[in-house]
Amino acid sequence: MRDLERFIAQSRPWKWCKRTGIAPALSTLYWHAKLAIHLWSTTVTIDGVTTEFATDSRTEYHRASSLVGEQAVIESLLQDVRESDVVYDIGANIGTHTCFVGKRLRSGRVVAFEPMPTNAVRLRHNLSANVPIDRWEVAEIALSDEDGIGSLAIRSLNYGEGKHSLSVDGELDIDVYRGETLVEEGRYPSPDILKIDVEGAELQVLRGFESILPDIRVVYAELHHELSQHYDTTTEEIEAYLRDHGFDVERLSERSDAYHIRATRSQT
């Protein structure tokens, strides 16, 4: 399907449509028709686990159907998940990881942290459509290395779009907690697995779990070269932190701006 879309985009008729200014209207009509044909949803299967995601826009459709190039990461995560695990999905967005994890669990639970309100709405919808209610919970808060109030920089209000991150001058006030605070206060059970995607603030999130890191079996994280600098750290420092706390670190995938790691408890 994407090959066909690329062919159309490079065709002479489409170039004529762009010159005449009717391309945006035709593109909107095309995507409304396509999404309607698919009943405003898309189905994805990974490692025998099939999940359905709601899709109300072109961006959301591509995010769900392509999994933003993270299929191999999700496959690896599913192999690590045990039926009784507690999994924290930190930066869950619309649930492309959370829903697959939830369907792997039986007596376990996945807690999805997503402070962006529009994403949290879609996240709950996708989880409700795929996973029994007793296996998941959505927390509309951010995690860091301090408890308090923070602000979220918002670049888009649409489902799954934009890069939303903690900022000193963000537009949306949100609650921020250390992971260990949430566990100590009994708000959520202690996690066995962490999946972290927080646009450069990964080290702050990890430091918030420091006292309970020895109890965590696996950490998955997307590390961002430039975005990490916004939090006065580097991807090398994040990897070193995990190694210093007893994890072996391997890279799963890499692109120019970021890469994924899998950190497992060292067997010593």
Task: Summarize this structure as a short list of keywords or feature phrases.
37% helix; alpha/beta; seven-stranded mixed β-sheet; 11 helices; 26% strand; Rossmann fold; 268 residues
Task: State the gist of this model.
This protein has helices at 2-10, 12-20, 23-37, 58-66, 71-80, 98-104, 117-130, 179-184, 202-207, 225-229, 235-244; strands at 41-46, 49-54, 86-90, 109-113, 136-139, 142-143, 148-153, 165-167, 172-177, 193-196, 218-224, 247-254, 258-265. The chain is α/β, with parallel strands linked by helices. The strands form three sheets. The protein has a seven-stranded mixed sheet, sandwiched between helices. Strands 6-9-7-8 form a four-stranded mixed sheet. The chain has a two-stranded antiparallel sheet with strand order 1-2.
